[in-house]
Write a structure and sequence with these properties.
Helix content is 54%, strand content 9%. The protein contains 10 helices and 8 strands. The chain has a 4-stranded antiparallel sheet with strand order 5-7-8-6, with helices on one face. Strands 1-2 form a two-stranded parallel sheet. Strands 3-4 form a two-stranded antiparallel ribbon. Helix 3 packs antiparallel against helix 4 and helix 8 packs across helix 9. The relative contact order is 0.14.
Length: 260
């Protein structure tokens, strides 16, 4: 019972992750939706499902996530209004403003990613783009995973959980801080490890929740980064761990126990 209480009391603030536009673009790509003809009702359902999962995990979402949910609900209601019996000139599509903002954000993000991926030679000086031949030699470039990709991967793991384990309480008694130490031991000496491999020891839903919250906290503290080849592809956890980092973690953990 302690582990569930720990997960419920543990709030994760996500300054390290992206905002609601990223989640919306992720869902559009995931469902292979035409950005110029968005089925708002279906997209809203998916969006709210992700928000519900985030709240269940006690993830502290920014107010913009709720604002966008309200906007999608408003657009959905406008599109569901019955057409007038008398022929009138059609009004503007209620999705136009949203589509324009999504396209602008998509262009802005693509430009930012292009700059980040270009190696810097000095202050504000970038190396020339690699040729196609050089890219083939270097292989696929991994990019930073966003919150939507993380939630989607975690949701997939939960769906594989046997139904009799969903409400079972873990007997491990591990809290988030202790789980972080355990994960750091697993990551020690590795360049990267598949996201789902960190959940191999987990049996119950509460185990999964504590592991996921621990990973988020490790990202926030700069102990790991989460990469993927492209959206909807496999996630990898890459350690940024030093002995000093581990010592600080252990000292903090012992301090919590001694103070309790």
């Amino acid at each position: 019972m302690e582990v569930v209480k720990d997960a419920e009391d543990y709030k994760v603030h996500l300054e390290a992750f992206e905002g609601p536009m990223d989640l919306l673009l992720y869902l559009i790509k995931k469902e292979d939706i035409d950005i110029y003809d968005i089925p708002v009702a279906n997209l809203l359902g998916e969006y709210l499902e992700y928000l519900s999962l985030a709240r269940e995990l006690n993830i502290d979402l920014a107010g913009e996530f709720v604002e966008l949910a309200s906007e999608l609900t408003f657009i959905k209601s406008k599109m569901l209004l019955p057409e007038p019996e008398v022929e009138e000139e059609e009004g503007p599509d209620p999705r136009v403003d949203l589509v324009a903002r999504l396209l602008e954000y998509q262009r802005f993000k693509a430009a930012g990613q292009s700059l980040v991926q270009r190696p810097m030679l000095g202050r504000d000086v970038f190396r020339r783009p690699a040729t196609e031949e050089e890219n083939d030699r270097e292989g696929e470039t991994l990019m930073q995973a966003d919150l939507a990709s993380l939630l989607n991967a975690f949701q997939d793991l939960l769906k594989r959980l046997p139904s009799d384990k969903v409400h079972e309480i873990s007997d491990k008694g591990l809290g988030v801080a202790e789980k972080m130490l355990e994960l750091m031991e697993v990551l020690r000496g590795t360049e990267q490890i598949a996201f789902e491999d960190l959940f191999k020891k987990d049996v119950t839903r509460s185990d999964f929740v504590v592991t996921f919250l621990s990973i988020l906290q490790m990202v926030k503290q700069g102990l790991v980064k989460i990469l993927q080849e492209r959206i909807l592809h496999k996630l990898y956890i890459c350690p940024l761990i030093t002995e000093n980092s581990k010592t600080v973690m252990e000292d903090g953990d012992h301090g919590e126990k001694n103070g309790s």
